[in-house]
Amino acid sequence: xxxxxxxxxxxxxxxxxxxxxxxxxxxxxxxxxxxxxxxxxxxxxxxxxxxxxxxxxxxxxxxxxxxxxxxxxxxxxxxxxxxxxxxxxxxxxxxxxxxxxxxxxxxxxxxxxxxxxxxxxxxxxxxxxxxxxxxxxxxxxxxxxxx
Length: 147
What we know:
This protein is of the alpha/beta class. The protein is built from six helices and six strands; from the N terminus they run βαβαβαβαβαβα. The protein has one domain (about 1-145): Rossmann fold, CATH 3.40.50.
């Protein structure tokens, strides 16, 4: 069973993704968090397989939360989720330890594909930001050099 945490400051977004993903065999949403600080605490306590991390939240945003989670776990896979499809957002999430990036415009089938890809050890970028795939390769190479 894939244990998943959904992090988004909008209740209805969390509920919608939770409902959709709980319909998928072998995926279980084990927690919902409304900000990055809650995500950090839940990640420490629950040790999920995957976190779907919104970017724009307060008091701790998704980039900061991703960076903090990476300090205590390299095993948890993190997928940045945002309405933003700009290179700067994708780069920042990947640079801070995200394993993938999916826009909120992406269909649920693409989110499921992203979950499986990052669990397989790959970096996943959704179709909407697919033109940035070369950037993901560069980020992965830089991360391997640091390790």
